[in-house]
Amino acid sequence: MGCLSWKYQVLCLLSFLFHSTPSSFSSSLSSISPCSALLHFNHSLTLDLSASPSYYASRIQMCDNSYPKTASWKEDEDCCTWDGVVCDQTTRHVIGLDLSCSWLSGPIHSNSTLFFLPHLRTLNLAGNCFNVSLISSEFGNFKALTHLNLSYSCFIGKIPYEISHLSSLVSLDLSLNYGLLIETPVWKRVIHNLTQLRELLLDETNMSSIRPNSLMNLSSSFTTLSLNDCYLQGKLQNYILYLSGVQTLDLSYNHFSGLMPLSLLNLPNLSTLILDNNQLVSPLPNYVSGLLNLNVLSLRSNFLNGTLPSWLFNLPSLVRLNLYDNQFIGEIGEFKPNSLEYLDLSYNKLHGSIPRSLLNLPNLSTLTLDNNQLVGPLPNHISGLLNLNVLSLSSNFLNGTLPSWLFNLPSLVRLILYGNQFIGEIGEFKSNSLEYLDLGYNKLQGSIPRSISRFDSLIDLSLSSNNLSIMLESEMFSKLKNLNYLDFSNNLVSINNNVTYTLPKLEWLNLSSTNISEFPIFLKTATNLLYLDLSKNIINGQFPRWLGDVGKDSLYFLDLHDNLLQGPFPTLNFLSLEYLFVSNNKLTGEIPSLICNASSLYVLDLSHNNLSGMLPKCLVHSNFLSMLNLRMNSLHGTIPTTFSKRNNFRNINLNGNQLEGPLPESLANCRKLEVLDLGSNKINGTFPYWLEGLLYLRVLVIRSNKFQGRIGNPKTKSPFPNLRILDISNNEFNGPLPRKYFKYLKAMTNVEEGKVVLKYMGDGYYQDSINVMMKGLYIELVRIQTIFTTIDFSNNSFRGEMPKIIGRLKSLKGLNFSHNNLTGYIPSSFGNLSNLEWLDLSFNKLIGEIPRQLADIPWLAVLNLSHNQLTGHIPSGKQFNTFDNDSYIENLDYVDFHCQEHVTALRQRNHHH
Prior knowledge:
Layout (H helix, E strand, L loop, with lengths): L5 H14 L2 H6 L6 H10 L2 E2 L7 E2 L3 E2 L23 E3 L6 E5 L5 E2 L16 E3 L8 E2 L12 E3 L5 E4 L12 E3 L6 E2 L2 H10 L5 E3 L22 E3 L6 E3 L12 E3 L4 E4 L13 E3 L4 E5 L12 E3 L4 E5 L12 E3 L4 E4 L11 E3 L4 E4 L13 E3 L4 E5 L12 E3 L4 E5 L12 E3 L4 E4 L11 E3 L4 E4 L13 E3 L4 E6 L1 H4 L7 E3 L4 E4 L12 E3 L20 E3 L6 E2 L15 E3 L4 E5 L10 E3 L4 E5 L12 E3 L4 E3 L4 H5 L5 E3 L6 E2 L13 E3 L4 E5 L12 E3 L4 E4 L13 E3 L4 E5 L14 E3 L4 E5 L2 H6 L1 H4 L12 E2 L2 E2 L2 E5 L2 E5 L8 E3 L4 E4 L13 E3 L4 E4 L13 E3 L4 E4 L13 E3 L4 E2 L26 H16 L1
Parallel strand pairs: 5-7, 7-9, 8-10, 9-11, 10-12, 11-13, 13-14, 14-16, 15-17, 16-18, 17-19, 18-20, 19-21, 20-22, 21-23, 22-24, 23-25, 24-26, 25-27, 26-28, 27-29, 28-30, 29-31, 30-32, 31-33, 32-34, 33-35, 34-36, 35-37, 36-38, 38-39, 39-41, 40-42, 41-43, 42-44, 43-45, 44-46, 45-47, 47-49, 48-50, ...
Antiparallel strand pairs: 1-6, 2-3, 4-5, 57-58, 59-60
Helix pairs in contact: 1-3
């Protein structure tokens, strides 16, 4: 009995699928109607809007107009009328199925009725999500298929070998399925069998096993080849990619290296060439013979160098040119084609002025020349740029005043000129189209233009670091309802708090160094604020009560350091707070334990205040806090003993308080700790050897406390492997110097780091700082160079000889053993300390002569050997000629210092004669 209705056909089909054998399954294709097959395929999936998002990875627009096509399918209608279905007008076979961006969710199994459509010629399932499932081998049975698109559809795993059976295929798109893999045998069969293939798109497919030379086997009839982000690597030889028919070629975001293949720049039909984010090295050729049809040339983020060749400015069809982030030098040539719409030459080393022809291109919509070495003023007059949306010229050396045409561009949306040397005033804008305006870090003066108050689309406004006088008032800002980012830092700002207004979308506000004396009252309504910086001002008095409600559920960054704030630390209910800086104020009272309600607090800096009371235990219980800086307050009591094993501390600075008692051994749980500064307290106990296992510790300062006793041998095989600053001065340590600790200070023997780019300790918004004795002065290092290395054991009771092994610590900048009871000779090995800048061995009982090897230390600027029992002659020459008598006073039986100076002067005078 036949199936009389489609609903009954579906029931029959379900029963058949559950009871059939594979042979009967394949032979049944002709007996199942295509409408029934489609209907069951639809019922095997669910509809989910999130399966067809508008953007892939937040950058590639995919399903901008998605809708559930199958939702309109009705059983009692001919399936040839269904949305997305195409039938042959004669045979009524289903020959086309386009269900792209149709919200489909669920796996496509091998027994899916989708494969009961043997006459399909085109199949498009892009922009759905098939449950992170494998591509079924059954796709290889669509013998008539010419176009297959499975892109952006949550497929993973290996591309099946059976895909190579689709011998009629003209277009294959499997791109943007992050997790797909094509192996070499499958790749070879695809190239060999699919002889009709003209379009191949495999973006973000893992092709790491495929060698570049296999690309030479592609048909010369190819029109589109897109292998973006496919883990391809190796060199692109000239002969590999001569595809005479190719129009679009995208090999970006791979690991291709070596010279740029010149063959690619001579392809006669090429319209789009994209080689972004590879490792290509070489200049562009001086001459090319093709590229008459080239619309898009994008070579961003490579290592291309040399000057820009003249042909680059004469391509007749060029619409988009992107050479961002390379190493091009020289000047920008004169552009001739009027077709250019997009130009990005930023992050190169281009110099000279901006060519006038570039500013007269009628179709240009984006011009980006950031981070070059361009000079000169902008021209006073131009005739083009009527369609310009984006003008970004930041971080150059442009100067002069801002020309009037800059404020008359009718379509301008983004104007970025920060980091130049522009002077004069900001003109009045004619258009209201601006959304992003950044004129920071120039030398502009005057007030901000009144026309800004009309920019109801303005999102980002930055005028930082100029000489502007800015009034924060209702008339100027009340209409800026879309303003998200506001930076007026390093200008002179006045606040009118008599009239309130709201900036409902404001998330980022920087008024640092603006000389304001009170909190802006419009902050009361800034409920969405994420970032607030009011540091380096003269805000005085106590915190207003309403401050705790500013961005109550959103604020993650609050910086109030270097003001004149007084009174107790406020009760802040910022549950989302991650960074809090209130240092260098006049706060008093205790640190409230409520501060720990901000469970995501990452940096807490309350240093240089007058805070008292005990250190809240909840702070050391935190598993998130990384930087704790409470130095220079009046905290007392003991350090809590319960540092969590899962803590995240990187920097703990409690210097300059009145903390007492022993150092808690639970500090050894701080496995990520890099800086520990407990100087100038009343902490007692023996040397904290249990800190030596902290692999990342770079700075250990326990100076000016009450530590005592001998420093024994290390307890681990590699103690303090990364320590660079060790200051245990002004304590009560005694016994011999700890030779074995000096032996294992690996970071202090390493001088390689001094050859790299200068770096500072800290991360993100926070820079580490400490106080150290340097060249005889006790100073604050507001930033710590990663190569800064010093040892200070002064003002203790160490005795015995100085270990020779100290001469291996070649990265040392400073060494201070003064004010101890050291005896014996100065080791000649100290002459190996080639980076040493200061050496203080004064006030000991050292004997013998000053080793002549010390004269070979090239950077030694401060030397103090006074108050010892040294004898003999003072070495002469090099740095020793710069030291005065104070370096040697109060020693035994030295040649008279003044006599030595006189002899030296006579020698110099005789030499001149």
